[in-house]
C-alpha cells in the first residue's frame, strides 16, 4: 500500500542548499536549521552553533550537523498544513558519532547525544516551547535508530522538530538524520485555505479554471516575507512550473504575483512558502475540472423564493425558537446545514447566516458563490436570541 507523504523531502536528502546563503548551513530542501545560543558566561565549548552539511552514508546523501570539541542544542524544523483535531505519528531515523577518537563511528569515551523528535501542534517556531510533544530521548551511537512521537493538531499549521543535545564536548561530535515520515492516524482532513501570519493569503484568478487555463496567483500580506516561493503540487503528485512575476507594495500590503498552468483535472495544492519550503506562509487547494452537463436531480415542481435562516453549530434551542418566531410571517426555512441552505434549482435563494463567525470555517458570500452560485448571502450578527427574532420580523429585503 502506498504511503501518504505529508512532509516535503521526507528523505532529508538531496537537493541541499545554503540556508539564506550561509555556506556553513547546508540544509536539505524543505527543512530549516535551528540552534540555541550559549548562555552568557558559558564555557567556550558549550552550545556552539553547529556546521550543517550533506554527508554520504549508505550510498545516499544525509543531513549532518557537527560541533567538534563542543556541544550543541540544535536540529531541523519544517511546517506543514493540518486541521485541528488531526492526529499524527512522526518517525525519523537518527544516528550520532561521539568520541575522543576522530575515526568515523568510534565511541571512545562517548557522550550522551540525546536525540529527540517533536511536534508543535500549534505551528510555532520556538524549539523551546512547552507546547511541543517530544519523543523519548535516544542514544543511537554509531547505529541508526527510529524515533517516534504522536500528537494531535491544534491549529491549521503544525511544526516538526528534530533535536540533538550532546552533554559533553568531544573531538568527534556529529549527528545524522534521514527518512522522516509523518503518518496520519485515523481520518485525515485537509485545510482548503490557510491564512498565515500578517494576514498572508492567496488569491487566484480564475477561481474555477478549466484544464489548460493559465492561473494568476496573488499573495497579499502585511508582512515583508523574505526568501519566498510559490510551489504547486499537481494532481499527479509532480511539481508544476511556476513563473515569478515580481513583488510590489500597495496600500500598506506586500503583493507577490506568480503564474502557472493547470493542464490536467484534479486537485492542486498551492503553497506560499519560505526557506525552500520549510516555512508555510499560506495555502490554497484548487479543484480543476472540465464542464460537465449534469441532469438536475433537485429541480423543484415550480420556481419559488426560498429564504433559509442558517443557524451556526453553537445555536441552542432558544435560537431555533427565536428563528421560528421571527421568520413565521415569511415562512422562512430554518436549519443548520450550509449545503442545505445553498442547494436547489431555484432562481431566488437567500441565505440569512446567523453569526457566521461561529462556524469552524467562517461562512462568507464567496463560499456560497463558489459552491452554490446564485445564492444571495446576508450575515446576521445577533448577541441574543431575542435580537435575532426582532431582526427577522423587521427584515424588509423581500424582493
Task: Give a description of the structure.
- This protein is mainly β and 399 residues long.
- It folds into three domains: 16-185, Jelly Rolls (Sandwich), CATH 2.60.120; 193-288, Immunoglobulins (Immunoglobulin-like, Sandwich); 305-394, 3-Layer(aba) Sandwich (Rossmann fold), CATH 3.40.50.
- The protein is 8% helix and 41% strand.
- The chain is built from four helices and 24 strands.
- The protein has helices at residues 317-326, 338-342, 365-371, 385-394, and strands at residues 16-18, 26-28, 32-35, 51-57, 60-66, 74-81, 87-99, 116-120, 133-134, 145-152, 157-164, 172-185, 193-195, 201-205, 214-221, 228-233, 242-250, 253-261, 266-274, 279-288, 305-310, 333-335, 348-354, 376-380.
- The strands form six sheets. It has a five-stranded antiparallel β-sheet, with no helix packed on it. Strands 4-5-12-7-10 form a five-stranded antiparallel β-sheet, with no helix packed on it.
- Helix 1 packs parallel to helix 4 (385-394).
- It is elongated.
List the helices and strands and how they pair.
Elements: E1 16-18, E2 26-28, E3 32-35, E4 51-57, E5 60-66, E6 74-81, E7 87-99, E8 116-120, E9 133-134, E10 145-152, E11 157-164, E12 172-185, E13 193-195, E14 201-205, E15 214-221, E16 228-233, E17 242-250, E18 253-261, E19 266-274, E20 279-288, E21 305-310, H1 317-326, E22 333-335, H2 338-342, E23 348-354, H3 365-371, E24 376-380, H4 385-394
Parallel strand pairs: 21-22, 21-23, 23-24
Antiparallel strand pairs: 1-2, 3-6, 4-5, 5-12, 6-11, 7-10, 7-12, 8-9, 8-11, 13-20, 14-15, 15-18, 16-19, 17-18, 19-20
Amino acid at each position: 500500500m502506498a504511503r501518504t507523504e505529508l512532509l516535503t523531502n521526507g528523505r532529508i536528502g538531496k537537493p541541499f542548499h545554503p540556508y539564506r546563503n550561509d555556506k556553513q548551513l547546508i540544509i536539505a530542501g524543505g527543512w530549516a536549521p535551528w540552534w540555541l545560543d550559549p548562555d552568557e558566561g558559558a564555557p567556550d565549548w558549550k552550545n556552539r552553533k553547529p556546521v550543517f552539511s550533506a554527508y554520504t552514508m549508505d550510498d545516499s546523501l544525509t543531513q549532518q550537523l557537527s560541533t567538534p570539541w563542543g556541544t550543541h542544542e540544535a536540529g531541523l524544523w519544517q511546517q506543514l498544513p493540518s486541521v485541528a483535531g488531526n492526529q499524527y505519528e512522526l518517525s525519523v531515523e537518527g544516528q550520532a558519532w561521539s568520541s575522543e577518537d576522530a575515526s568515523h563511528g568510534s565511541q571512545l569515551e562517548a557522550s550522551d547525544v540525546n536525540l529527540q523528535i517533536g511536534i508543535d501542534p500549534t505551528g510555532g517556531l520556538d524549539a523551546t516551547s512547552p507546547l511541543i510533544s517530544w519523543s523519548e530521548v535516544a542514544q543511537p551511537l554509531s547505529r541508526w535508530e527510529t524515533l517516534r512521537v504522536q500528537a494531535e493538531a491544534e491549529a491549521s499549521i503544525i511544526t516538526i522538530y528534530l533535536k540533538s543535545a550532546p552533554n559533553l564536548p568531544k573531538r568527534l561530535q556529529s549527528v545524522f538524520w534521514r527518512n522522516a515520515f509523518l503518518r496520519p492516524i485515523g481520518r485525515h482532513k485537509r485545510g482548503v485555505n490557510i491564512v498565515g501570519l500578517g494576514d498572508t493569503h492567496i488569491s487566484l484568478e480564475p477561481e474555477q479554471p478549466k484544464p489548460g487555463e493559465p492561473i494568476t496567483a496573488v499573495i497579499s500580506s502585511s508582512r515583508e516575507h523574505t526568501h519566498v516561493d510559490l510551489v504547486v503540487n499537481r494532481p499527479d503528485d509532480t511539481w508544476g512550473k511556476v513563473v515569478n512575476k515580481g513583488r510590489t507594495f500597495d496600500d500598506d500590503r506586500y503583493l507577490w504575483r506568480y503564474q502557472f498552468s493547470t493542464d490536467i483535472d484534479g486537485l492542486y495544492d498551492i503553497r506560499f512558502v519560505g526557506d525552500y519550503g520549510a516555512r508555510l506562509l499560506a495555502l490554497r487547494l484548487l479543484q480543476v475540472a472540465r464542464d460537465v452537463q449534469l441532469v438536475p436531480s433537485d429541480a423543484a415542481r415550480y420556481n419559488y423564493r426560498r429564504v433559509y435562516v442558517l443557524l451556526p453549530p453553537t445555536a441552542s434551542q432558544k435560537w431555533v425558537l427565536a428563528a421560528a418566531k421571527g421568520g413565521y410571517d415569511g415562512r422562512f426555512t430554518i436549519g443548520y446545514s450550509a449545503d442545505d441552505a445553498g442547494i436547489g434549482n431555484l432562481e431566488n435563494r437567500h441565505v440569512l447566516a446567523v453569526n457566521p463567525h461561529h462556524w469552524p470555517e467562517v461562512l462568507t458570500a464567496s463560499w456560497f458563490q463558489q459552491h452554490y452560485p446564485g445564492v444571495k448571502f446576508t450575515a446576521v450578527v445577533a448577541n441574543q436570541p431575542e435580537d435575532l427574532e426582532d431582526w427577522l420580523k423587521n427584515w424588509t429585503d423581500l424582493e
